[in-house]
Design brief:
Length: 177
């Protein structure tokens, strides 16, 4: 069965769900771990979102992350490798009705790390963009309730526009919460 795309109003419990997974990830990756970040729409207070906790992880070694695939599987994650983005490791939990996604990058992959953080930080501080994005996501979820590709493609122009805007002036502060 295809994933059912729903967009819900912001839920403060998403922060706690992230914190639990952050501890689990730290336990699995141990000394390979550099940083863990809550990204995606569930990391932006007041933003409607698919209730999927997006987590970005910076590691010293992707090979060592690959070596932890079995531990991630024991924690309920599917370890899907690059899954369309070179230099990333993608994991998901919850099957078609996924609850969590992890995006692992090498700590020196500043392009991918910073674009996610810059986008998140911009939405946290710009209400007009946050509202525009929420409206777009709700419309796309209604139009593509079982078509994740259509939903994602519908968001692409907005995401690219905002990413380009914020990366032009992003100061690299990776530890914002």
């Amino acid at each position: 069965m295809a994933q059912h795309i729903t967009v819900k109003e912001y839920d403060p419990a998403w922060r706690e769900l992230y914190e639990r997974e952050k501890a689990l990830i730290a336990d699995i990756l141990q000394e390979n771990l550099v940083a863990v970040y809550h990204i995606g729409s569930t990391s932006v207070p007041a933003l409607a979102a698919k209730p999927v906790i997006d987590i970005m992880v910076a590691v010293k070694s992707l090979d060592a992350a690959d070596g932890a695939a079995e531990k991630f599987a024991e924690a309920g994650y599917e370890y899907l490798g690059e899954f369309g983005i070179a230099g990333r490791r993608y994991l998901r939990k919850g099957g078609d009705e996924r609850t969590h996604q992890i995006h692992i990058f090498r700590a020196d992959d500043t392009h991918n790390l910073e674009r996610h953080l810059a986008f998140r930080d911009y939405l946290r501080t710009h209400e007009d963009a946050r509202e525009e994005y929420a409206k777009l996501k709700k419309a796309l979820a209604e139009k593509f309730p079982y078509d994740i590709d259509g939903y994602c493609e519908g968001k692409d122009a907005f995401v690219r526009r905002v990413e380009a805007l914020v990366l032009a002036c992003y100061d690299g502060s990776r530890n914002r919460l």
